[in-house]
Amino acid sequence: MILTPEQSSLLNGGRGPAARKAMQILAALGKIYGAERMLPVSSVQVSGVSYDNLGDAGLEFLAELADGGGKACVLTTLNPAGMDIEAWQSLGIDSGFAQRQQQVLEAFSRMGILATCTCTPYLVGNLPHFGEHIAWSESSAVCFANSVIGARTNREGGPSALAAALTGFTPAYGYHLDQNRIPNLTVNVASPLNGSDEFGLLGIVIGNALEKRGSKLVPYIVGIPSASLEELKSFCASLATYGGAALFHMQGITPEASFYQPPSDSILVTQQAIEAAAKSVNSASSSPFSTENHSLASPSIDFVTLGCPHLSIREVARIAELLRGQQVKREFWITTARPTKQLADRLGYSAVIESAGARLAADTCCVVAPISRRFSSIATDSAKACYYAFAKNGWSTHLVPFDQAVREALK
Ligand code: F3S
Q: Is the beta carbon of 238 within 6 A of some atom in ligand 1?
């Protein structure tokens, strides 16, 4: 790989041991993927923030980089942590965990990284523009940034994103290059879709189809007349989870779709396929906790959550509207970014939600918080949350429309 004098100096330790280590990570990655050069990036999103995932080894790695003088040289934001930084006690997080999580966040802060703790950085100020090269490592946000915004990023891991933050560079391969953004599979959607849950189901169907074909495909989706920001957010999370996809084009909706014609290789998504996906999510609950009948009235649901990915202010407003004057009967977490929560506080939504007994939690989510032993059955509108609820925690899963999730909490 050809390095500029600045990049060579970083590799030789000219800006300290942390930047050297970061450059070594990037150079090794570039070599593996055959990159010819490095590209400057202007925005980074770092995942791997929860102490539940990092453990002591991860915390040590971060502390070592911070001690080694590591400093972010571009706008860098963080994925959700394992707890609400301010209200962790009310979420039942133990103090030992809270202390370790704080140490993780301190290490990031010492490196000049903004502890935004959200998977929707594009809703709270880390919003790249079309064509901008970035290095993001939250799979749902990567898919959103590449596809909906038209920025350019690979699906980075936590360490490689952090390395990009500390150097301002990423190797030029994958989705940074024009030729890898060309669609090669048309997906004809012949099913009406409505709401975040159904867009999540579409992500399951397409994701499974991509997985079956076994190669890195860029789908070109046709047949969807419109999609809201929230529906796209849900779709991106699901497609990335079930199909490992980091880029799609959607005719009439995403910015690069107009650059291409639909590829000749195609698949069809029928209404039956969407219904089968819905059934499969609910029968993913063929775990020990599952009942034969997946009736939503089942008392087995002990946890309701909305906010995977983190909610927009419009979604928080809708929840407040549905909860006004009522009391929830089940544990109900509503997860969002801190700035969105602050806006909700100011607009009076938080007060309505909290007086209904639900928890409006910032900085965290149902997947990265250490709560696997506390619940056994989840209701949510998020296909991604269902995947991890089952795969990581062994919970039974109920994928429901957004409004219905609120109603489940009230039952
Ligand atoms: Fe975000 Fe947690 Fe879902 S990081 S996408 S809310 S699993």
A: no
